[in-house]
Here is the input.
Amino acid sequence: MDKGQPCTILQRQQWTEDLCTLWFEPPQQPKIQAGQFIRVGLEVEVDGEKEFVARPYSLVNAPTDERWEIYFNRVPDGPLSRPLFDLQEGDQLWATGQGNGFFTLDEVPKAQQLWLIATGTGIGPFLSILQTPRPWQDYQQIVLVHGIKQLADKTYSALLAQLQSQYPGRLQVLYTITRETVVGAYTQRVTEALKSGWLEDSAGLQIGADQTQVMLCGHPDMVREMTGLLQTRGLAKNRRRAPGQITSEIYR
Here is the structure.
């Protein structure tokens, strides 16, 4: 396996007990597109022996940024996420310089509306995409929907507010919360928010095959159920040989 290149941690932000962002110097001569993932790795101890473990992580930063950024969740039994979570400024991780994956706007047709629907850390590639000129050129209205467990998971609010100020009237941000009752918030799953009509009512927009593109990123169950719900409305999976309206990436 190509380990990539050693990269120094430049900044760390712990949002909650299990949510963290790391900023690090990128590998030399990086080649990435907004929405793609890289492989991140560390030498970790497995059963008393040192072993190199690597996993894919989507980048949050725009491809032109001087620092790379990953946003991730510490998994209790995760062989990489736990030691990755413990890294501090000055520590090193390994990262590949070549982006991978097709979860990019190059693969998504132009439309009037772009709906970006994420759960958990699945918001990461959308944040990268929104920090590039492309979505603002190809879509008139953009709706970012983020399904979270608790109010404390409402991360990156400052960045989203900055984007809303930069593109006035173009970006709406909606949250659904599943494990905490918050006054004024929709406390159901993202899929229930679509079924109930809350998403479209809140955005003041209607999802339809003739004017909408939808990108889904997050838990497999959400992606699967949301895809089915959208298909009942006449939307189809987006494929290169048969362009549709639904483009998805699963976070396990």
